[in-house]
Design brief:
By secondary structure, the protein is mainly alpha-helical. It folds into three domains: about 100 residues, no CATH class; about 70 residues, no CATH class; about 50 residues, no CATH class. Helix content is about 50%, strand content about 10%. The chain has nine helices and four strands. It has a two-stranded antiparallel sheet with strand order 1-2. A two-stranded antiparallel sheet has the order 3-4. The longest helix is centred in the first third of the chain and has 18 residues. The N and C termini lie far apart (about 55 Å).
């Protein structure tokens, strides 16, 4: 299980986040934070419970972390979860799609790589559980054939994923996608956002909640080609 080695970042003052408190949502937030704190005492056993609770806080609409005085998911991850946001998002994804038994059997690093591989095969991010394929039946292409998830290394899974996403990017190099990517690269918090285009639709992965306003501005500025009907 991952070890939390990162120092706490300063917490934003309560006054920085103004929110009308719904007593029911505040109660839910407090209950989930209590789950996180309890699970943190025995993390090797309760990794799944801890990060599922974090997922519920961050994914809730509206986000529940504002009830704790945090302006963004990243601030919540650093302060409450004591984890860097990049790692936290991986752990949330693993807890969302995988069982505690999976986490014990394969480890979080391999599971995160496997989820990325499945998304690359689908050509789009996974919206919600369950995974479309049982992990025990997943086959990872390698140089001399394929391997089971258990036998494949993280490097082999990453290589298979890169091959798929590379082909996907080549297929999707349309003027519209290129225009959006060009604008995203101009904004530091949005440089890692992934853009998928399929069937006349865009899907985006990895848009930070704290950068939503920038993201909307980027989309409005992108010079998309005029469609010909």
């Amino acid at each position: 299980m991952p070890k939390r080695k990162h120092p706490r970042a300063p917490r934003a003052p309560k006054g920085d986040v103004e929110v009308k408190v719904d007593p029911k949502l505040k109660k839910l937030y407090d209950e989930l934070v209590a789950v996180i704190r309890d699970a943190s005492r025995k993390e090797a056993l309760d990794f799944d419970r801890r990060w599922e609770a974090a997922d519920r806080i961050v994914s809730h609409e509206p986000p529940l972390y504002v009830l704790g005085g945090y302006a963004s998911a990243d601030a919540f991850y650093r302060e409450v979860m004591e984890e860097e946001p990049r790692n936290a998002r991986r752990y949330v994804r693993v807890a969302r799609f995988c069982s505690p038994d999976d986490e014990t059997r394969y480890g979080t690093t391999k599971l995160d790589a496997a989820i990325g591989f499945v998304e690359a095969k689908l050509g789009k991010p996974l919206a919600h559980p369950p995974l479309p394929v049982a992990l025990g039946r997943l086959r990872v292409p390698v140089k001399d054939g394929s391997k089971s998830l258990e036998d494949a290394s993280v490097a082999e899974i990453a290589a298979a994923t890169s091959k798929l996403t590379g082909a996907s990017r080549k297929r999707e190099s349309t003027p519209a996608r290129a225009a959006v990517l060009a604008e995203l690269k101009k904004v530091a918090p949005l440089r890692d956002v992934t853009v998928h285009e399929h069937g006349g639709l865009f899907t985006f992965t990895g848009v930070p909640i704290s950068a939503i306003r920038y993201f909307i501005g980027v989309l409005s500025r992108a010079k998309l080609p005029v469609s010909k009907k």
